[in-house]
Amino acid sequence: MTGDRVLDRTLAGRVVSAAEAAARIGPGETIALSGFAGVGRPKVVPAALVAVQEWPVGVDVRHSRVAQHAASGFYGALDVAVVEVAAILPNGLLVPGSSVGNNQTWLDLADKVILEVNGWHPRGFEGFHDIHHGAQVAPLRAPIQLTTPMQRIGDPYLLVDPAKIVAVVETDLPDTGQPLSPIDEESREMAELVVDFLRHEVRHERLHHSLLPLHVGEGDVTDAVLAGLRTAEFEHMTAYTANIRDGHLDLLDCGKLIGASATSFRLSAEGARRVDSDVHHYKGRILLRTQEIANHPEVIRRLGLIAIDSMLEADLHGNVSAVDGSGDFARNAHLNIFVGSSTTGPGGSGAASRIVPNVSRVDHTGHDVQVMVTEQGVADLRGLSPAARARRIIDRCAHPDFRDQLAE
């Protein structure tokens, strides 16, 4: 495969086995791995190590802040970056693969770099990416000059000092596909409530008929929202989000979505085959950015996103426990909508309410939450006092079996 994907002569001379590459990582050295949510993660070098403690260890912060914190030294020194790419060009430029994440930051900070060149990625990925190289640490940070979802502000390639590269490993292995669950009736009903609410906003001239750039988070219900948008009347939509999923491909294929910006693919095995078989159809319609820019609060607020995220639990104060990764989008969006079932199962015996007096973990405070949707209905919380907010959540979102108990 060296002739196809490793085109730099010097780096072609550094192609070794996974075991040989792993041997160039010293005991106790810190290791950062490429990828976002498991997509674009190196496949063979980590497996060749006895143990991997991925750097930064145990970090639970907003995704937009990880690169900034790492560059500011919050997590200590980075010894080794193991980064998966689709190809190495003759001039040493790196063609990214199915995700960008914080890969450029890892390449910049690491003392040593190991590249996994994965032939499974379509060679046509060249040109899919927009790598922003201008981020600085405080107080030198400049405004992010991004004003439309598909605007390019960087380069198509990852950059690395060739002197850092201690090994190149060739692979041909797929990302782990994300299984697609059939859309159940309850998810379909909740998705229709979300779409109806967007129609309501258009009728009241708070949204345009093409809406605003969409962030639709992960989950069965949010997958149903993407499916519902496919049959809705909205046209010429755009997406500015974290992951490109099968539902985004469906919207692009039918022409409802004209462009989607993210930091990573997160596709089923079938979705990955769709992209591979028609990669040039999606080039120019899909743009993968660095994680810091894809999740950047400044950009999200400027673009005026509609953020639709899965809700695990909500309380009467409006606080929400949500799926990881929603924070940057929901807090800074023009409009945020949280959607999820009102109970852990069918109402009645054996079920528990997901609408509770106080959530066990606050991911989004009531100050930031605007709209909640369950299978029971829609609670628009904008402009309400705390007492009115609690009453509306009970009346519109809680299951009838639990309303009296919650009202006490």
From TrEMBL:
It comes from the Bacteria. Residues 60-170 form the Acetyl-CoA hydrolase/transferase N-terminal domain. GO terms for molecular function: acetate CoA-transferase activity; acetyl-CoA hydrolase activity. It is an enzyme of class 2 (transferase). Residues 281-408 form the Acetyl-CoA hydrolase/transferase C-terminal domain. Keywords: Transferase. The keyword Transferase applies. Its EC number is 2.8.3.18. GO terms for biological process: acetate metabolic process. InterPro entries: AcetylCoA_hyd_C, AcetylCoA_hyd_C_sf, ActCoA_hydro, ActCoA_hydro_N, NagB/RpiA_transferase-like. It holds the Pfam family AcetylCoA_hydro. Signal peptide: none annotated. Belongs to the acetyl-CoA hydrolase/transferase family. This is Succinyl-CoA:acetate CoA-transferase. It comes from Nocardioides albus. The lineage of its organism: Bacteria, Bacillati, Actinomycetota, Actinomycetes, Propionibacteriales.
